[in-house]
Write the structure tokens for this entry.
Amino acid sequence: MTGPGATTARPDARRLTTLLVAVLVVLTAASGVVWWNVLNPPRTAPAATPPAPATTAPAESPATSPAGPTDDLPRSARPLADDQIVVRFNVGDDWTMSTISSTGRRGSVVLASGEQEIAPVVSHDRRTVLYLRRERPGDRTSLHAVAADGSVQRLLFRDGSPGCPFLRQVVWSVDGTLGVVCKLDQQGTIFTLGTATTDGTFLRTLDVGLIGSPTFSPDGRQVLYPKAASGSWSRGGPLYVTDVDGSTEPRQVVDGRNVGPAWAPTGRTIAFSRYVSVEGSDDPAHVVTLPVDGPPDAVDELTASEEIDTDPSWSPDGTHLVFRRATDDSDDRLRLVVVTRDGDDERELEQDGTVGTPSWTPR
């Protein structure tokens, strides 16, 4: 109305109305956004897939082959060359353990402690040498290991345990097991052949009697050894073979007076020394071989002199043997001789003094 008595709208009312309209517009827009988000949720980046855990190839089993011993023994950085033989030399009271080549060239000194160290055994990887030390005074023996380059040596164990009262011989299997011949009494009337670890833990007795130095088969499953029926051990006895796990009874392989067998690296042949009777002289000993699968009479003589040839040891490739030779039982100067596996090309190596048992490869 524009006539008299009509009322005019106030400015505050108009501003309030405008504000309410604006609020309604904002609320309506906001509610639209909410419902849009409910019906169409925003896409979020997928969570990163955690990377698959890194996998490593399973560790290889410890070597049970000529790769080397599994024990933490002293080892040289490099293996001995295949033509190197480890042997104990002594000139008077001067004892050394050294290498000598198959052609007679003296190599490095492995050990020179001044003690009575004997019977070296080269490891399959040719980086370690085991040896026996005769303890003085008394009738005790300890087993030691030295790196083949002479850099480190260590005592492994001493005899005197119930399983091995008096240690006399040690041989070394490809899996690191030791074959040990132990004297059961101080008189030496009975011996035991058993297996042990390099820390001296005795594992198993394989035979008891007048037993000499054994040799393992290349695969470590069998052990071959001489055993005399009675009397003196000095001239050996028949050779026997048995399984290292004790699953079989010892079986005679060949008769005769035999000592110092050595199983060839090929596994097909054994070498040993055989005493023969010769009237009017000391019984000589010949180095002979026998096929593992052959008959007992298939023995082949590699030497046939009237001297005493003992302790043969095979070259790593099985083509040659080294042994020591004495003129007779009273000879105090033993010499090293190398011969082919067929008995040809025999040659004596020049040396000073006398020698102990050579080790070209492990027994």
Observations:
- Residues 84-355 form a domain with the Neuraminidase fold (CATH 2.120.10.30).
- The first helix runs from residue 11 to 39.
